[in-house]
Amino acid sequence: MRYTQHTRFLIVCLVILILLPWFFQTIESSYLVSTFTRLVIFAIAAVSLDLLIGYTGLVSFGHAAFLGVGAYTVGILSFHAYEETTFLGLPGTLSGLVSIPLAIVLSALVALIIGALSLRTKGVYFIMITLSFGQMLFFLFVSLEQYGGDDGMMMFDGRNTLPGFNLNDRVEFYYFCLTWFVLFFWFSTRLVRSKFGRTLAAIRQNEDRLSSIGINEYWAKLQIFVIAGIGAGLAGALSANHTEFISPDITHWTRSGDLMIVVILGGMGTLIGPVLGTFLFLLLEEFLPLILHSLGLNLLSEHWRFVFGPILILMVLYAKFGLYGLIFRQRS
Amino acid sequence: MAQLYFEQLLNGIQLGMFLFLVSSGLTLIFGFMNVINLAHGSLFMIGAYAIAFLHGVTNSFLLALILSLPVVAIFAWVIEVVIISRLYTRDHLDQVLATFALILFINEGTTMLFGRTPMFLDVPPLLSGMISIFGVVSYPLYRIAIIVAGLAVAFVLWIIIAKTRLGMLIRAGTTNRETVEQLGVNINQLNTIIFVAGAMFAGFAGMLAGPLTSVEVGMGENLLILCFVCIVIGGIGSIRGALLGAITVGVVDTMGRAFVPDLLGKFLEPTAASGISAGLSSMSIYLLMVVVLVVKPTGLFPVVKSH
Amino acid sequence: MKLNIFRLIVGLTLSAIGAGAVLAEDLKIGLITTLSGGGGYLGADVRDGFLLAIKEEGGKLGGKAVEVLVEDDGRKPETGRAIAERFLERDGVEIMTGIIFSNISPVVAPLTLRAGRFYVTPNSAPSQFAGKKCHENYFAVAWQNDTLHESAGLNATSQGYKNAYILAPNYQAGKDSLAGFKRYFDGEIVGEVYTKLGQTDYAAEIAKIRAAKPEMVFHFLPGGMGINFAKQYDQAGMNDEVPLVLAAPSADIKILKAVGASMVGISNSSHWNHDLDNAANKAFIAGFEAAYDRSPTVYASQGYDTAKLIASALSATGGKVTEDMDGFRAAMKAADFDSVRGPFKFNNNHHPIQNWYSRVVVERDGQFVNKITGTIVENHGDAYASQCSM
To answer: Which one of A29, A200, C12, C121 has the largest count of C-beta atoms within 10 Å of its C-beta?
Structure first.
């Protein structure tokens, strides 16, 4: 019965997401399409992290590294296209048909390397080593003077191009991101329901007996690590396009922390949970200050994190099922 | 030239002392209570704000320092009782999230109290000025004081851990927690004591940092990540490891920042050299951590668990 | 299905808020500035100077009612970009101003100009917008970045220094500053070091300066960075060994107050000072002290001048900005207002042509202030004007 309620919920959400731009246009707040694009992109990253934390029990504290890889791939290609210079002998390009697949491929590669090394450790050491890889990438991006260093760079010629579409149009870009989101979400759902998904669950629950069933734990973890890395890399590439701005901040360790919060807030190990968590988090960030301001609670509106922090702590301690559990009255 | 090299080396050791003071608490809390406390950097910040505020009120550095210690202790005690104690039985993910949220809360609260402008504090007149070491190098007295303070704390910690009953309990608890519990020791009280003690070391570092650099929100987080590197390199749960790790990181970071730009400056123009060298020296520390973890996953001086 | 209703309500609430923002009739001016961190008081002063002019006119500038939207960019380009996008798309801002730091202007300015709005900077003025990328809707009211430091170079040369060790943070304005100093300093550069923006500990750099034994040190470290450096420099005993010759951002009264007596005697240069003897300046200082109970820094004077400039243009166009772009632009170019600096006019690239004064730090009535000792150069324009095609 959970399956049907689930699917019904998903379909309704999808319909709403598809109709949103039309709705915003009619109430003359087209600007909000941009906010929801950001939400959809962030949700892709959150879902990818849920695959690691929620389904495999791998607490990766450096997931934002892949956001950076995706973003900088798009950014560097765009930079060289604009400046008409080459990068290691290759010309830049603004084409979405090159930038986005390349972002995905590079994220996979980086995830392979980081995963191969990190997955040799366990527990807190895994958390620490993923954190340090994230930091290394952060400082690597900071050191790239040519691409803005600490301050980042703009995509001076606008967003990536896609034949037949104009991604610089707010609504078209929204549907572009929504399509990627639906694809990744659907893929993840099929993944966790497959035999591989059951392997991941086994890894999360009880690692000691796996080899006796003939499962190569390390290899399975590496695979999911790469897949999650691809998701985040995709999100990074889309994010770069969305803001037309790339900076090392996208890889900052607090960004990894934000992703983790969103996954837990929404309900980890559910895939939908992180989406709900993203929705709540971004909405809070964007509109809570406004609402509080218009209600006259000015002090709190600027310092909403003061209230948010304790709420989060309470949720971690007592309500780990998150929004998902709240809505579906289930524990994940 | 001797002046320059020695001065930079001392700078590195001085940074190492800050890292040690914060890391020692972090490693104890993790080693003994198995809790990852991301908010440890906040305790550093609270120490700094406490002394900056109290100095403004009393106009005496010494008085402010003495009064700040109980302030940090009280904060730490409240945090431990209300939040940290509930995390002992939780997994690391929960600890990371809860303490991350705690950072948000503490930072925001500090901003609400003190605003967004950094506070500045002067070096106490008694400790200002330069001192000549063996006639070879001239170095600010205050920074020497920090190094001395750090070494003193290290010494005190060593005495406590190696020679006292409390220390024995700590050593026992880091290797095998259940045994200590079965000894009939009030484990909750012990947890609180250790947490507060660790926090006070961090807060003490913050107080010392006040006159040196500005006191601002977020000053703890920058240090915290480096501290994790220190304790991982040194071995979680080991004070000796924390000291070694801290000095290594401090010296590598400082020497890197000092000399790599010049090295690169021979090939690149100054702005590029500075950018890349800053990136390189920052990366090198994490690279070091990765190498240590891959080769010796439990660090250089690991505390061997016996369960 | 209860979640759908929940979403609907949320959606409607949001849209109501969004719609509400579009209704007002006042001219909306977006003031994106740095209000947090070590550089926070720069933004606070620009804002307060700007708002003072509006307050003096009873909520208007040049006869037109204005609403100023103020937000903090936290010295992060990404934050500035997000705020600018919101101001331009949701809030209908017609004039963008306020940016302090030059790592943010390269992001906010193009966004504003691309949207067809005016960008008037009260502080940051990086070289690219003064030269090749100059734009008809872009106006810099304070100075062009380099000129701040060119004045220091001239000052240092006139004081007879033969070599110098120079430092600045590694970002656009930092690079501009050292380029500007070198352009007008006749001596040799013994060392050129770039620090990290927001860096707090300068022990390593001070050690290098000591080893290099230069005749003087020039640095561009605005806000909290300047305070930290000055204190540590003094602590290391360097004030007695190697004198500093600075430019205004490294010697504003906030820095002087925070650092204290060790700054006395340090020579620096600026385009404005409290003791400039003209009516507008006297009125400004009196008004600022009365309204805010503190002495204005140079940043406040710049914010004030920016508002007065905009007011002069608004009074010429009858309050129209976007409806009369050409008229507003021409009125801005004319700069028909009484600047607190005295003589002021725009160059072809919309950057100022003004005087630069040498100053020295003195103690007066228990406060540390700057005192003008002479005029370094008059009617000085920037070095990029010829590269601008306007």
So the answer is: C121
